[in-house]
Write a structure and sequence with these properties.
Number of domains: 3
Distance between the termini: 28 Å
Shape: globular
Largest sheet: 7 strands, mixed
Helix content: 40-55%
Structural class: alpha+beta
Bound molecules: 2-acetamido-2-deoxy-1-O-phosphono-alpha-D-galactopyranose
Order of helices and strands: EHEEEEHEHHHEEEHHHHHHHHHEEHEE
Strand content: 15-25%
Radius of gyration: 22 Å
CATH topology of the largest domain: Ribosomal Protein S5, domain 2
Length: about 450
Amino acid sequence: MYPDLNPISWRSLLDRERERVATLVKQFRMQFCQPPQFVVLAPGRINLIGEHTDYNGYPVLPAAIDRHVAVAVGSRADSIVQARTSAPGLAPCTFVLEGRLQPGPSGDWGNYVKAAAQLLCARVSAPKGADILVDGTVPVGAGLSSSSALVVGTGLALLLSAGISDLSRFALAEEFASAEQFVGTLSGGMDQACCLLAEEQAALRIDFFPLRVRSVPFPSDYHIAVCHSLVRAEKAGAARTAYNLRVWECSVAARAVAFLLGDHEQALSIDRLADLERHFPSQPRASFLDLLTYHLPDRPMPIDEIARLLNANVESLMPRSRKYAPPLDTPLQLLRRARHVFSEADRVESAEAALRLGQVDSLHRAMRASHGSCRDDYEVSCPELETLVDAAITCGAVGSRLTGAGFGGSTVQLVPTNKLPEFFERIDQLFYARQLPGERNFADYRFAFRPSSGAKVIAID
Ligand code: NG1
């Protein structure tokens, strides 16, 4: 059972959370000349392992960080949403809750607020608007899912200020995941589920389609260290196109395997690699990859060339949803993408078992192999992440790997709690001092935490 979303008193917050809430309430009063009704604290996340598996229907193993997007909300009499943020350089976002919401320019932070507002529009026919103030401590572009924390935080704020109270964390996790695709990314459901369902002192094993979660206790003598590669991993422009392309490549790979298994009817209802296991339960996971390896060369090819090699027609290899699909002549790398996903799914199982048994060495091996596979088969690493991962290993970390979508962002690793000061001192010398000559304080780029709980709603009285 998960805690419901009934607002809690600010008195039950941790000291540092209470201070943040008090500051945000004060700022809200100054900006909107009235007190907010609620404040929502929505955490970011790291992912220990299970990268790019969620949208393929395979599990993930994230944990919520102790940094949040904080959202204060007050209701309005009209149907306007007015969202402001204390983040420097971001203009207020104002829109009317009417008809079908349209996204603004790509990368606009208001698109995440609109993505969230869709849930309110779906529930209420003529919804009232709200004043919203957002303040965040989840670093942006760090692979820590500040975007989903913003969607979940503003979404909960809007629903609560509209008086909707029968909210289930479970149902909302799935609804927010679909809603976030509004911004143009074919993302999976890991981030929103972790943001809503995470538990303190535990990682969260999440399975999808249907959504299921179970908590995995985190070793008491370790912290999770997060180090920023100094390359922003914002999913806009090229990184978004690269992410969506991988989703497409995996779908086409799933179609291709189903076709090769000879069931051309079935192939038409398969869009995710994990669907293969449900449709062909007698086939071992490894055999799917063997088929692709046997029939396709290890190089990117346009879909018509793939169809020719498989003796299929192009249409039968095209996934059902064409949302954000790449141009038809885009070269697709099926073999390597599928190899990453199938092997990563196996590694999630090993990592979960290792965590449960306290076998830090096995966890280390699984996380290191995951990083190698993200780099070589999924091709989502970059030189700075490689240097940082090597440095973290030299500094004694357990299992350094990129976390989140990749293309920059952060690495995640385990460090014994009593070795944290030494770890940070060494990584500062080995990575940050070299990357940022002239700078002396690197505390903004790395931090450590123990797993935190999912989103909290605080009533302001
Ligand atoms: P980030 O790191 O937040 O961009 C993305 C997706 C996840 C998952 C990971 C890769 C979003 C909101 N989230 O995370 O669903 O696919 O990449 O494992 O796009």
